[in-house]
Amino acid sequence: MDPTAYLVAAFQYVLPFLPAQWVAGLSVLGSFLVSLCAVIAFFWPRPAVGSKLLPLYLVINTVGLNGKHAANATATVPQQKTLP
Questions:
Q1: Residues in contact with 15: Cβ distance below 8 Å, sequence separation at least 6, in sequence order
Q2: What is the tens place of the pLDDT at every residue in 3-24?
Q3: CB atoms within 10 A of CB 56
Q4: 42 touches 65 (CB < 8 A)
Q5: Furthest-apart CA pair in the chain: how many Å?
Q6: Dihedrals φ, ψ of 67, to 5°?
Q7: What residue ranges are annotated as transmembrane (predicted)?
Q8: Contact (Cβ atoms closer than 8 angstroms) between residue 46 and residue 75
Q9: Does the N terminus or the C terminus of the chain have fewer Cβ atoms within 10 A?
Q10: Region of residue 68 (phi > 0: left; psi between -120 and 50: alpha; otherwise: beta)
């Protein structure tokens, strides 16, 4: 079964037990967290392999839904373009 299906099933089971104001607040906080991580990932270049900050960078990049989209998502060193 797809992991998304498990997540949807969990939400459908839990959400009826929570007050609507709590769910609204959690959705706002979740949206803010994703947006903040996306902004941080935009300005933070990828640390070198073996750096202590690389796991934190990967978490921020994942939470910010930034994988494979940003110019700095995979490059550890900026690419130098050569002129012909």
A1: 23
A2: 788 888 988 898 888 898 998 9
A3: 13
A4: no
A5: 65
A6: -65, 130
A7: 20-44
A8: yes
A9: C
A10: left
* Identity of the residue numbered 45: P
Counting Cα atoms < 13 Å in the Cβ hemisphere of 29 gives 6
Q: What percent helix, strand, coil does the chain show, rounded to 5?
A: 60, 0, 40
For 27, left (φ over 0), alpha (ψ -120 to 50), or beta? Answer: alpha
Please tell me what DSSP assigns to residue 14.
H
* Both tokens assigned to 48: 């070198």
- The answer to whether the CB of 39 falls within 8 A of the CB of 66 is no
In this prediction the pTM is 0.64
Copy the structure tokens of residue 13: 């089971």
